[in-house]
Amino acid sequence: MILFFILAVLSVVFSLLVIFRRNVVHNAMALAATLFLVSVLFITLDAPMVGALQVLVYAGAIMILFLFVIMLLNPAALEPRPAVWWTAGSLASLALLWELVALFFYRPADFQPSPVAGNFGAPEALARSLFTDYALPFEIASVLLLVAIIGAVTLGKKAS
Amino acid sequence: MVPLPYYLALSAVLFVIGVAGVVIRRNIIVILMSIELMLNAVNLTFIAFARFLGSMDGQVIVFFVMTVAAAEAVVGLAIIISVFRHRQTLDPQDMQFLRW
């Protein structure tokens, strides 16, 4: 319980840093910290395999890609802050937050976690589910990644 | 065990912070980062429900969400590089060449 609250407060603080810091590199580092904290939350929810994937794929590969693009583009100028947008955006998000959190807390509080087997969330269980029930989506995901690679290379190529 | 609504509330908070980032910021790289934040909040919801319902399906869906997020980030960043090469800007207010 204490661990959950520490992780929750830290992840909210870091995700606020993602949108409120003006330096883009600071945003990227705060996002990496948020993703890492959420992966720890995954591990506390009996999903060690997904937590490891989160660290490898998100906090590793995707964040390095973001940092690489930031360095490549070198956005030196800090963006201006139009006050109207910030006020309107913050008010709209606060309204959305109030609705969402109220919706979740009106659920019956005695929703108990169901007992799970010892290998719940283990790599074997995830892989068995992935390669039996979800074999077709898995293949489609591989095609999606191939298309993304080809599309990125085509887009990034200098037009001759 | 932490009750389920706590996880859902944390996920809602992270999601709303992502929405606010998309609405407020005027740097398109930070907007992409906010989208990643929203996807991550949804992943937290999936994992929490998978644990509390005792089913592996939620974790498999998170795997697919990660795949789609990776593909989206790669293509989005390639588009950003291509646009920056032509327009020398990262401000979505200046990218109006698809508007009619």
Structure in words:
The complex is a heterodimer of chains A (160) and B (100). Helix content of chain A is 76%, strand content 0%. In chain A, helix 1 runs antiparallel to helix 2 and helix 2 packs antiparallel against helix 3. The longest helix of chain A has 26 residues. With 100 residues, chain B is mainly alpha-helical. Chain B is elongated. The interface between A and B is large, with 83 and 69 residues.
Compact overview of the structure:
Chain A has 160 residues and is mostly helical. Chain A has 6 helices and no strands. Chain B has 100 residues and is mainly alpha-helical.
Q: Which helices and strands occur, and which strands form pairs?
A:
The complex is a heterodimer of chains A (about 160) and B (about 100).
Chain A: H1 2-20, H2 24-44, H3 48-73, H4 83-105, H5 123-132, H6 135-156
Helix pairs in contact in A: 1-2, 2-3
Chain B: H1 4-24, H2 28-53, H3 57-87
* Strand-residue proportion of chain B: under 5%
The general outline of chain B is elongated
Low-confidence stretches of chain B: none
Number of beta-strand segments of chain A: 0
Which percent range fits the helix content of chain A?
Answer: over 70%
Helices of chain B, by number, come to 3
Question: Strand content of the residues of chain A, in percent?
Answer: under 5%
Order of helices and strands of chain B: HHH
User: How far apart lie the N and C ends of chain B?
Assistant: 54 Å
State mean pLDDT of chain B (0 to 100 scale). Answer: 88
Structural class of chain A, by secondary structure, is mainly alpha
- Topology of chain A as a string of helices (H) and strands (E): HHHHHH
Mean pLDDT of chain A: 85
Return the structural class of chain B: mainly alpha
* Largest interface, Cβ cutoff 8 Å: A-B, 83 and 69 residues
Portion in helices of chain B: over 70%
Shape of chain A: globular
| Strand segment count of chain B | 0
Please outline the major beta sheet of chain A: none
End-to-end gap of chain A = 58 Å
